[in-house]
Write a structure and sequence with these properties.
It is built from seven helices and three strands. With 164 residues, it is mainly α. Helix 1 packs antiparallel against helix 5 and helix 3 crosses helix 4.
C-alpha cells in the first residue's frame, strides 16, 4: 500500500527493517541445523570459494578477525571446516569444507530457497527478478557515492570495490 509523506524516511526505514527481520528469520531457520546465521554465512563463503584466507572472510562478512576465529574454531570442532596451511606462507590458514559438510550445504541451499520464498510470497518470479536488479542498482549507487565522497578513506574504497 503506497504511503504519503517523504519517501526518504520510508525508504531507509523499510530497507533497515527488512534487513533486521531477514536476519532474525535466517537465525531462527539456521538453528534447526545447530548453526547461527553467521556460521551459515561462513560456510556459504567457503563453499563458493574454497581456499579463502580467514582474513578475507572476516573482511567480506565485516566481522572482527578474532570473532571469526572463534566461529571457525567451532566449525572445525564440528567437523564442517578444516584449516590448511598456505603453500607459500605458513602463517596463513586457508579454509575448506570437509566431506562431512557437503550434505549440510545441500540442506542449507534448500533452506536458503525457503527463506527467499517466504520473504517473496505474493511476488511473481519477474517481480523478484526486477527487485533484485533494483537492489543491485541501489548498491552500485551507494558504492559509487562511497568511492567519490571526499571523506572516504582508502580502506573503505578498497573494501567496497572488492566486495559487496
Amino acid at each position: 500500500m503506497p504511503r504519503s509523506g517523504p519517501i526518504d524516511a520510508d525508504f531507509l526505514f523499510a530497507l533497515f527493517e527488512v534487513q533486521r527481520l531477514l536476519r532474525l528469520y535466517a537465525d531462527k531457520q539456521a538453528a534447526q541445523f545447530g548453526l547461527t546465521r553467521t556460521q551459515w554465512a561462513v560456510l556459504a563463503k567457503v563453499n563458493r570459494t574454497e581456499g579463502l584466507k580467514q582474513a578475507e572472510i572476516a573482511e567480506m562478512l565485516e566481522i572482527q578477525p578474532i570473532t571469526l576465529t572463534r566461529l571457525i574454531d567451532k566449525l572445525c570442532r564440528s567437523g564442517l571446516l578444516e584449516r590448511r596451511s598456505d603453500a607459500t606462507d605458513r602463517r596463513i590458514n586457508r579454509l575448506y569444507l570437509t566431506k562431512a559438510a557437503r550434505p549440510l550445504m545441500a540442506k542449507l541451499a534448500a533452506l536458503r530457497s525457503e527463506v527467499v520464498a517466504t520473504a517473496c510470497t505474493g511476488f511473481s518470479h519477474a517481480e523478484v527478478h526486477r527487485l533484485v536488479e533494483q537492489l543491485e542498482a541501489i548498491k552500485d549507487n551507494v558504492r559509487d557515492a562511497l568511492q567519490t565522497a571526499p571523506t572516504a578513506t582508502k580502506l573503505t574504497k578498497l573494501k567496497e570495490r572488492r566486495y559487496g
